[in-house]
Specification:
The complex is a heterodimer of chains A (287) and B (290). Chain A is built from three helices and twelve strands, in the order αβαβββββββββββα. Chain A has helices spanning 9-18, 72-86, 280-286, and strands spanning 45-47, 113-118, 121-126, 132-135, 152-158, 168-174, 196-204, 207-218, 226-235, 251-254, 257-261, 267-268. Chain A has two domains: 41-235, Beta Barrel (Lipocalin), CATH 2.40.128; 251-286, no CATH class. Chain B is 8% helix and 24% strand. Chain B has two helices and twelve strands, in the order βαβββββββββββα. Chain B has helices at residues 64-78, 280-286; strands at 38-39, 105-109, 113-118, 124-128, 145-151, 161-167, 189-196, 203-211, 219-227, 245-248, 251-255, 261-263. Classes of the chains: A alpha+beta (287), B mainly beta (290).
């Protein structure tokens, strides 16, 4: 995506877009000028800080320790999920099938992420998921687009301290699909997928190598919006790897059952006393 | 990722001395406009050489050993197997197959890196144009490690060709769904020249030369992509979602619409259930037939 020069014109264009005025005038493939000095430097590779696990609220332990503001029905689902996981099951967490974590969980950044900022769009690239596209061209949410795990994200740049440079990206994400959970313990989101995720992403004012993402999740599984602030640390000595969930996934899903693949290549139960798969079609094919 | 500062510094941007992660200027007028969404032209299927028919029509310049592997693969596919196409388990196509662009592609040109995002799995290519060399010790990947160089071929002051070399690939990969194999040693080198059609800026070409020990000579094909002129819509193509293939050991089975395991080819034996104790009789003999 290319933005031919005329720097200076761009800031105004982007400003209009940010105000929502330029929405219709900016064609998706029309080249724009781009004044990079108007945007923060979020280059490099962002990771979870040392010692931070994969829990949703980084300040609390995984599972019940998260004290998620769940409705009683969904609290019961979480407790059942944890009980199932204690028996070797996967509970509410569907990630073992290698579907994406989706929003908001993907912003836990289990594997490193990268922000690529352009005037009309910010990409968030992951090692283990498809990129997020956060549109900052003033568009509105589409009415008919197919829902997705990452959802549809619209952003708005803000210059909160008035120094002439954007410092905060506000993002709203809708149009999601499931199944999704907040974290591996299986803290559930509602199956109606009406989730709305609001983010405020900005550098730590006292440390430019820390990025903060205040994430508010509004979902019908919750009694109130759940706000957590994620912290990411910058690595400037960047190496990117591929992380393909399916490549060495030892889970084998047959119907609604999850089995394991043993090291010697045989199917094995994932939990005690699990019945083997129904092989009726093989019996028929052998006859 | 943002560069900043004065504009004119960038003409040299793709060159040799830009530090990783440092800020720099970006004169966008020096680069071609490859924005938008790129797709295969209408009528083009998923074969590697789009100028030839799929499958046997591809006539890949394979060594005799790999020609035999490919022919065995074609027979296996005709019997319902997957042959040497490994992607049924939802691993990425890898290079050079990813450039078949089965799902749409977006190209983001920045001075130090050109990103190629393909709407499938996590098939994100980073083509580094900051003058770096190939790393000596780096984990191989399906998409490989790509280094590019911008060229102003017609001398008009604007780059028009991106030359790319990709190495550090890993196995298994095939050229296309017909299973045209690449060598297991994964020493593939892929060279590309990406440029727009001089008469039609909405057509992009990728001249791909693949050097691989499965090939008797470098295999050169030219891919054509067309720019989507309607409003762009990006989807998630999540292979693992709804994938009906189940790999158990080295065998590929299918899961039927009713959620039951079924053979993928005629007379295929069921999986060995030796690790199950209870209920085995139920699975192998006592279940009612439909």
């Amino acid at each position: 995506m290319l933005y031919p020069s005329r720097i200076g014109v761009v800031a105004r264009t982007v400003g209009l877009a940010v105000l929502g005025i330029g929405a219709l005038a900016i064609g998706a493939t029309v080249a724009q000028a781009f004044d990079e000095t108007k945007y923060p430097d979020w280059s490099g590779q962002w990771r979870r800080p040392p010692g931070v696990g994969i829990q949703w609220d980084q300040t609390k332990p995984l599972g019940l320790g998260q004290q998620a503001p769940l409705k009683p029905e969904f609290q019961a689902l979480l407790e059942a999920s944890l009980a199932d996981q204690a028996q070797g099951g996967q509970g509410e967490d569907a990630r073992f099938t290698c579907i994406p974590n989706g929003m908001p969980r993907m912003m836990t950044i289990v594997w490193p992420a990268e922000f690529v900022i352009l005037p009309s769009i910010t990409y968030v690239n992951f090692e283990n998921h498809m990129p997020r596209r956060i549109y900052t061209d003033g568009r509105s949410f589409p009415k008919t687009e197919e829902p997705s795990f990452a959802g549809y994200s619209i952003g708005r740049w803000i210059d909160t301290d008035g120094d002439g440079r954007f410092d905060t990206l506000e993002v709203e994400t809708r149009n999601l699909k499931g199944p999704r959970t907040f974290e591996a313990s299986g803290i559930p989101l509602h199956k109606d997928n009406q989730t709305v995720v609001k983010e405020r992403i900005a550098l730590d004012k006292s440390n430019p190598d820390i990025l903060l993402n205040e994430i508010t999740t509004i979902d019908n599984a919750l009694t109130r919006p759940w706000t957590v602030t994620k912290k990411y640390r910058r690595d400037r000595n960047v190496m990117w790897f591929e992380n393909n969930c399916t490549e060495s996934n030892q889970h084998v899903v047959i119907g609604k059952e999850n089995y394991f693949m043993s090291a010697d290549g045989f199917l094995m139960p994932a939990r005690k006393n699990q019945a083997p798969p129904d092989l009726r079609y093989f019996i028929q094919s052998k006859q | 990722m943002l560069g900043r500062g004065s504009v004119l510094a960038v003409a040299l941007a793709a060159m040799l001395t830009i530090p990783v992660g440092g800020a720099w200027a970006h004169d966008e007028s020096k680069y071609p406009d490859w924005s938008g969404q790129w797709k295969r032209p209408p009528g083009i299927a998923n074969q590697f050489d789009t100028s030839k028919a799929p499958r046997k029509g591809q006539q890949p310049p394979l060594t005799p050993e790999y020609q035999a592997i490919w022919e065995a693969n074609l027979k296996d596919q005709e019997a319902g197997g997957q042959g040497t196409d490994p992607t049924y388990i939802c691993i990425p196509d890898g290079m050079p197959r990813a450039m078949n662009v089965i799902f749409p592609m977006e190209i983001i040109v920045l001075p130090k890196t050109t990103y190629i995002m393909i709407e499938y799995l996590s098939m994100l290519r980073r083509i580094y144009t900051d003058g770096r060399s190939f790393p000596e010790d780096f984990e191989p990947s399906f998409m490989g490690y790509s280094i590019g160089k911008w060229v102003d071929e017609n001398g008009d002051g604007r780059y028009d060709v991106l030359e790319v070399e990709t190495r550090l690939l890993k196995h298994p990969r095939a050229f296309d769904a017909s299973g045209i194999p690449l060598h297991e040693d994964a020493k593939t080198v892929v060279k590309e020249r990406i440029y727009q059609d001089k008469a039609d800026p909405n057509v992009l070409y990728d001249e791909i030369t693949t050097i691989d020990n499965a090939l008797a000579r470098p295999w050169v094909v030219t891919k054509k992509y067309v720019r989507e002129l309607r409003p762009q819509i990006w989807f998630e193509a999540i292979c693992a979602e709804g994938n009906q293939h189940v790999r158990i050991g080295k065998e590929n089975y299918m899961v039927g619409a009713d959620g039951l395991l079924m053979p993928a080819k005629k007379n295929q034996l069921p999986p060995d259930l030796r690790h199950f104790n209870a209920s085995r009789e139920e699975a192998t003999g006592a279940t009612p037939k439909r």
